[in-house]
Amino acid sequence: MQTTSCNWIALGSLALCLPLLGACASQKTLQNYEDEIAALREERTRLKKDLHQLELQLDDYEIQLSEANVQLQERPDPASYPDLDELGILYGTRGGNMVISVPAEVTFPSGKAEVTKSGRDALKTVAKVLQTDYGDGVYWIEGHTDTDPIRKSNFESNRHLSMMRAMAVLHFLVEDCGVPDAQCVVAGHGEYAPVAANDSVPNKARNRRVEIVVHAPGA
């Protein structure tokens, strides 16, 4: 009888504790929900800040794009140089840089590096374009030849010839056209940077040239 009484007492105690356990479990669940809600609110606040920053960056990019478009509109259209077209001087953009390509036949006698009279007239037109539309640029004056070996001139190699022709163009632009020497860089590539295969007379003529590549200041 005593054992039975004890069992009834234990059952009664358990019955009394069950509501308390249920209340504790409910309280813990509620606390978890509240923690999750607080975390979501913090996440929403962070996302709103990130969104605001992205909107500011987008506004900044749009302003930069607008300014760039204005600058592009102010730059002359590469197809708007009829004086160069008339002289047979090629031009266009390469790698974002303006390139003016003067055929050797326009500026030099065969195998020589002295600028001809017609070459001087042509380079005056080139200088006008540079000073008017690209006055703040850095001018890379680069000489090029075909692959025919040097035979009858005093030049050691095609590279030497290309360098001397580039130097001749530099001297004329600086001394006769007022192009700032400090804005000029000179290079001689010889036959190593062709624009066409050296497999025909017309293609070889295309490769014999002096290019003036206009780089942005500091580039």
Order of helices and strands: HHEEHHEHEHE
Tell me the CATH topology of the largest domain: 60s Ribosomal Protein L30, Chain: A
Largest sheet: 5 strands, mixed
Task: Report the sheet-strand fraction.
Answer: 5-15%
CATH architecture assignment of the largest domain: 2-Layer Sandwich
CATH superfamily of the largest domain: OmpA-like domain
What structural category do the secondary elements indicate? alpha+beta
Quaternary state of this entry equals single chain
Rounded to the nearest angstrom, the distance between the terminal CA atoms is: 103 Å
Tally of extended strands?
A: 5
Report low-confidence residues grouped into runs of 5 or more: none
- Count of individual helical segments: 6
Which CATH class of the largest domain is shown?
A: Alpha Beta
Mean pLDDT: 84
Q: Taking strands numbered 1, 2, ... along the chain, how are they ordered across the largest sheet?
A: 1-2-5-3-4
Instruction: Work out the count of structural domains.
Output: 2
Task: Using the CA coordinates, give the radius of gyration.
Answer: 39 Å
Q: Helix content range of the residues, please?
A: 55-70%
Shape estimate = elongated
What does this structure look like?
With 219 residues, this protein is an alpha+beta fold. It folds into 2 domains: 1-74; 82-215, 2-Layer Sandwich (60s Ribosomal Protein L30, Chain: A). The chain contains 6 helices and 5 strands. The protein has a 5-stranded mixed beta sheet. Strand 3, helix 5 (158-177) and strand 4 (184-188) form a beta-alpha-beta unit. Helix 4 crosses helix 5 (158-177). The mean pLDDT is 84.
